[in-house]
Amino acid sequence: MRRFNFNLKHMLVCMAALLSPQFQLAGVYPLVPALFMTGFVCGVNRSLLFLCSICGLLILAPVSVMVKYALVILLSAALVWGLEQYTGHCRTHVAGALCGGVTVVVGLCWNGLHLPGTSGLVIRICEGILVTGFIYVVSRLVMMIPDWEPRSEVPVVMYAPGGRRLNEYAESFEKLSRTFRKMNRYKEDFSAEELGRMQTEVTGRICASCNQCAICWEEDTMPMYQILYRFLQALQRGRETDVQERATELGEYCPYREDLIEQVQLVFEKAHLNMAWYNRLQENRDVIAQQLDAMAYIMEDCANEETDVTAKEGKITASMRYAWKELGVLVEQLRILENSHGKWQVLFQGRTRGSKCISVREMARLISGVSGRGFAPAKDSKALLGTESQSLIFCENSRLTAGYGVARAVREDEQVSGDNFSFQMLDNGCCVMAVSDGMGSGYAACKESEMVIDLIEKFMEAGFLPDTALRMMNSAMVTHGEHNLFSTVDLMRLDLDSGEAAFYKIGAATTFIRHGKEVRMVTQKSMPVGVFVGQQVPKVTEQLADGDFVIMVTDGVLEHLHVRDAGETICEVIRGIDTNNAAEFSRLVLEQVLLYTGGRVRDDMTVLTAGIWSR
């Protein structure tokens, strides 16, 4: 069964139209056409509005007045409807002018017939002006009336709470992660107890069948136990000189020296292999713990629900509706959500009037003008709003914007560069720039660095923090790196509201930041991705501003310059570049580098530049 939509705004306007003949001024009834046209252009049910207006005239006005203003209403409605069919919509001031003009013309014609209810020319003109002004002003006030609906019937399709349950799930994952971490006990050396068990195993294999066993192990004068224990300790330390010394010492007391040493080494290697597998199990547990922590973080982030401030910002909401109505947009549902950082999202459901389409960017421009905040359509939004109802999301712009450019050179004896890069604009108001240099060159290096960049993009899009994403990616690369092909990662995450940039470097070359003519270097020393589990992700924070440039390079740019200080040389090159185009900036840097190398490209070269500007 279809539910009845009780709309407070429609009912108030219709009641006002019904009672409008009660108001008379100098023999005219300006509120009759004015209230009718106000409701007509404000989306009130037109059939119900026309019925209420005619009923009010029948009940409260003389017959001549009823006929006159019924004609004004019919002619005004016909003109506005025809304009809507022709152009797609009719703006409020145009509808007011048409209705005021019709009121004046019909009134003057009525004067010519000398019928009752006529008045002078000045009064007719004043009535038309009053009608036009009333429609223009009151239509804005009508849009301020909220579309009230019973609380139980307010649709919830636009966003769905559930933060409490997500927080509970996140807490469970965190507890499970802590449990896995408590189970982790990495082993680097054997304990005295474990060395004793190895010694017992060796003596059980060799000494138990030896005729001199009682002599070696039972007499106090034969220190066989200490000698064998010291030999195992020497194997554990791994120093060859110690092992040879202890082996010689062992030969002085055991006639089966060679067999005994062979068995000791076999038992030790077996125990060492078991310890390696044990540590790998601990590494896998650590990887699982990291992933559980990451899942908990994502759940907690999702649980931080956006607050619905539609009712609180009623004036802005009404202004949006009015501005869109003037553009020819029929608003079916509108919500304003505010996140934990105070940023707004406008959720829109609606369509256009008539048959024309409207640019979604134009709709965003109107939101910006009404709210005083910059808005843009969300990523992957449709470009046009058509006659079929659709949902749109408009996101508040950040204070800064960023653009990028890249220049690359492939190693002389290769067809494909082993470097890959990425530049992402995220929905949370941040941008991420990353470069990965695959170890080696050619297709193998390209495939490895491409996988690293792909993982970074997926993690960033999912909402992970860079350090969490890099740790998880490193864990995946450790298990993948059976061919000993590792990749460097140079990553920057820039908050486009605050201007704070966080740099993460894993085996990457120096990054350069230009602020005016000042050039700063960001360096960190660490192993490439995939070398070992549990690798720490160093972080450097810098503050960026309007006009700054961030230049990332791979090691091929710095390692073949044939200068004493490659970093300072690149700083001088960057200071001398005069352009605001990021792509041109990268090209000029690479050209200068090739001048230093004599045009030779002995390693893959990539220069990735990001420019930061105020909106």
Model description:
This protein is an alpha+beta fold and 615 residues long. It folds into four domains: 8-143, no CATH class; 162-304; 308-396, Alpha-Beta Plaits, CATH 3.30.70; 400-614, 4-Layer Sandwich (Phosphatase 2c, domain 1). 51% of the residues lie in helices and 17% in strands. The chain has 19 helices and 17 strands. It has a five-stranded antiparallel sheet with strand order 1-2-3-7-5. A five-stranded antiparallel sheet has the order 8-17-16-13-14. Strand 9 (419-425) and strand 10 (430-438) form a beta hairpin. Helix 4 (63-87) packs antiparallel against helix 5 (92-112), helix 13 runs antiparallel to helix 14 (360-371) and helix 15 (442-462) packs antiparallel against helix 16 (466-480). The longest helix is centred in the middle third of the chain and has 47 residues, at 257-303. The chain is elongated. Mean pLDDT is 80; it is low at 1-5 and 149-161.
Task: Detail the topology: elements first, then pairings.
Elements (H helix, E strand, L loop, with lengths): L7 H12 L11 H11 L4 H15 L2 H25 L4 H21 L8 H23 L19 H21 L8 H14 L7 H6 L5 H14 L2 H12 L5 H47 L3 E2 L5 H14 L1 E10 L5 E9 L5 E2 H12 L3 E3 L6 E2 L4 E7 L3 E10 L9 E7 L4 E9 L3 H21 L3 H15 L6 E9 L4 E7 L4 E5 L2 E5 L16 E5 L5 E5 L1 H4 L7 H10 L6 H15 L8 E10 L1
Summarize the structure.
InterPro entries: Bact_Sigma-Reg (IPR052016), PPM-type-like_dom_sf (IPR036457), PPM-type_phosphatase-like_dom (IPR001932), SpoIIE_N (IPR045768). The chain is of the alpha+beta class.
